Amino acid sequence: MKQRVSALLREKIGREVVLEKPRDRSFGHFATPIAFSLAKELRKSPMVIADELASSFEESEVFSKVEAVKGYLNFRLSEDFLAEYASWALENPAEFAKQEKNQKILLEFVSANPTGPLHIGHARGAVYGDTLYRLAKHLGYDITAEYYVNDAGNQIDLLGLSIQLYARDHLLDETVEYPESYYRGEYLDALARDAMEKFGREIFYDASRQKELALWAKDEVMKIIVKDLGDLNIFFDTFVYESTLYADWGRVMQKMGDGIYEKDGKLWIASEAKGDEKDRVVVREDGRPTYLAGDIVYHNQKFERGYDHYINIWGADHHGYIARVKAAIEYLGYDSNKLEVLLSQMVSLLKDGEPYKMSKRAGNVILMSDIVEEIGADALRFIFASKKSDTALEFDLAEFKKQDSSNPIFYIQYAHARIQTLLSKATVSKEDIANASLKNLGENADTLLFDALLLPEIIEDAFNTRQVQKLTDYLKSLAASLHKFYYDVRMIGTEDEAKLLKLMLMVALSIKTGLSLMGIAAKDKMSKEEA
Questions:
Q1: CB 156 within 8 A of CB 218
Q2: From CA 205, how far away is CA 198, in angstroms rounded?
Q3: Residue 318: inside a domain, yes or no?
Q4: Strands 354-355 and 339-344
Q5: Residue 34's domain spans which residues?
Q6: CA 527, CA 323: separation in Å to the nearest integer?
Q7: pLDDT tens digit sequence for 349-362
């Protein structure tokens, strides 16, 4: 709807026009302050310009009313326009709210170390990234979801050592001395048992085979990670392994030219000159590359693949890392503005008002899989998408196990199921409903129809601003409007039954489409426990 109105104004005025939605719906569906922008150019007051523009739309079939109010132009869409758009959407549900954007995007998210199962901090970035991915896909972007597997460096070596020590301690009944840093948690038990079956107990005593054990184990952990993400309805198009990148370090280093220099036996990137706090080491005295070196090679590879835009979703603790990576991109000869880094804050979890206990299976974190098991994937996805990703998130599991309006995902699912129940009680045929006119429904019904048809604007706004919570807010609002309408208006058996049920179908389509963009399937009926 907004695109259609924008196109009409662009044709009429010859320039792009900012459209707003008035808080008070009595002013209309859309408004614009364009007259104020034109005042200086046309040498007229905004009020005069607004009056002239309003009168020029008197014959438009799109608007039932265009009004000038103190220099603003207010637009009310016509019943014919809304009815035609709703009928098209219901006839083409798979195309509703879709667009065709001509841009290739590479989206990297999660990228947790393959040394243990995902915790709830990883879950937040995973849900955020996957929801952005789904929004972009729906809008027609050519977008790739990528997982960068950090399978090199000390953390992988430490995984091998941790399994050796765990096996000797728990499976072979030895007394072992643990170092200050090591991985812990019951997930190591399955790894140790499988390793014993595959390699024999000797591998737990042979320090020279620690790397072999670690490389096998990180692949097994990746299987756990992929399964846990799949349980949350999150899937990746590509995986890039850090361990495969370092063979290209020499070429990439040459490509960076004077961005790399030697000092004190180390190689440094001159990142301070590009806005970083200081220069950074990329190769240590012993020749081992730092984590940053891997990231430099990885981002060079990304840019060589020729995407139009690159989005990374990182944990908030990586904020200081942005400048050094962008510095490397500049030295590589690319435009660092093409890289967009979005930060995801940590999560505080409560249960009945008390801090949630850490998982025994993970050792010192709360596992994502534990929360999915307790409240379900739908609730977890909705919670983690319901607040700006760069702000702190605290929630109580108990709230999302309630089967009432205080639980937003229940409330939205119940709205969709309620519509399906209404349709099952219809005394008119599906053909009657499909052919019904959506005119002369009354103000409340017109408002509900307009709200249901707003989904395309919500999707585009949520993606463009990178604020996926705008979609959750919209769905909560639409569900509330539906429930109120249901209680206020009798539908079955009335003269307007067919057209009212067609309105219900439009609301259901928006709810179903919106939920699907969050990786959630809409329910046609609630279980006895949920009803």
A1: yes
A2: 15
A3: no
A4: unpaired
A5: 1-77
A6: 51
A7: 888 888 877 655 55
